[in-house]
């Protein structure tokens, strides 16, 4: 008896976020563009005052809409191309697309607004914001989150308003040594198959990575934040410790040595010696 032909599969329908067009009125204290649509306030990261933008609605509450910038229809005169390739997805630096001198003016006005909310300080003179010698590569501290996507280890930040981890890679605001440590840790966690914590299932070991760099001495302290306090109770065969690197110059291979010898310990505490 002939087998009837299989029914064709229906194409999967992905939910498409509705689009709206609106004009940004101002930036809030976090540097997020604020607009109005119908009777609600719209928050759009990456948009600047006066810009007409196309926005995808990601969340619609009773009073507020959280939108994702899709396209800038009319540009702010001080808009620049962000120095970071992850700016659109990371959203950790809300002013990165604004000219640096305009960023300083925004921060000065932010202080002025804060003072003006107190009657006794209203009208106080606010000093001009001092520019940094180098607006990039200055950040020496970072607290990052571990994630995993399709078997690939991620180290970065949560996308704003979600638990989705954006792998930030070579962040231009981070000190170069900090970026190198992130790169090596990611490679080692992937290579050694250390379990990464999943907030959806509540399983896994590695949750956060805290890094502090001392630029003058080129020393780095790396701290792993784990899901379990007592490692003997975990299903993982790995233990994690924090240590401070020694020496003044480190290449990637030397960091890998430190991580293998000090950071990742086997289940036996006696094996947790740093050489």
Explain what the structure shows.
The protein is of the alpha+beta class. The protein has 4 helices and 14 strands. It has helices at 87-90, 100-116, 176-192, 252-263; strands at 19-23, 26-27, 33-37, 40-45, 52-60, 64-74, 141-149, 152-158, 165-167, 206-214, 219-226, 238-240, 243-244, 264-266. A 6-stranded mixed β-sheet has the order 1-5-6-4-3-2, with no helix packed on it. The protein has a 6-stranded antiparallel β-sheet with strand order 9-8-7-10-11-13, covered by helices on one side. Strand 7 (141-149) and strand 8 (152-158) form a beta hairpin. Helix 3 (176-192) packs across helix 4 (252-263). The longest helix has 17 residues, at 100-116. The protein is globular. The model is unreliable at 232-275 (pLDDT under 50).
